[in-house]
Amino acid sequence: MTIIEINSEVNGHRLFGLLSGEGETTVILDAGLGGTSEDWAKVQPEVATFAKVFSYSRAGLGKSEKAPTPRTCKDIIEDLRSLLSAAHLNPPYILIAHSWSGINARWFANQYPDEIAGMVLVDAVHEDKYEQFEKVLSEEKASRMWLFVKDPSKNDENIDRIASFEQVRSKQIIFDFPLIVLTRAADSDELSKIETDLQAEFLKLSAKSKQYFSKHNDHFIQNSEPELVIDSIRQVVESVKANVT
Questions:
Q1: pLDDT tens per residue across span 113-133
Q2: Is 0.70 topped by the overall pTM?
Q3: CB contact at 8 A, 49 and 141
Q4: How far apart (Å, rounded) are the C-alpha atoms in residues 72 and 152?
Q5: Which ranges in 55-202 belong to alpha helices (H)?
Q6: Domain topology for 3-244
């Protein structure tokens, strides 16, 4: 399978990505906070057998250059759209987003709905999780949590999480595309249960939504159960093809 390296300057810094496979609609793999294109090593080669697929590393990660910080999902998606344009990868796209990148993907789809043909959220972050955590934490633990969450310097990409959540909340449309929500198996941890329960809310984002649960309580489903992620991507790709033909 041929793999093409993409290394393009966008908005004053260079971003690195990997392109493989063929197809009319490009599948985009977006890793979680601090993750790179390497996070999809078990997924991309298999997806490339039935679709064109692109993974990349956000600014300051992997082989991609740093960008001014703090950053929000708006900044990240502006980078991604510029990178896709530079690589001559035209919309519509199918977005596959792990963890924090679910926020990025949803902002993308809210702002540019005509550019998105489908989405798979892989154990994605919900914007209300910290408010829900606060309800079960002691006052001291909740205070420490908010100090951490509100300080962009405390996460791997210097992302302003509060501003990003507000960006997503400011415009939420109902998607008219297939959406699959993948959720790790629940465990006895109270905070983990809050996170996994919140993911059912994503089903309201599209009338064409489904949810599948992993056999494992591993947050990185693309590593612990890659076949579930691959099969979900295949379902969305086939659904998009069926609507086009």
A1: 999 999 999 999 999 999 999
A2: yes
A3: no
A4: 10
A5: 73-86, 101-111, 129-136, 139-149, 161-170, 190-198
A6: Rossmann fold (3.40.50)
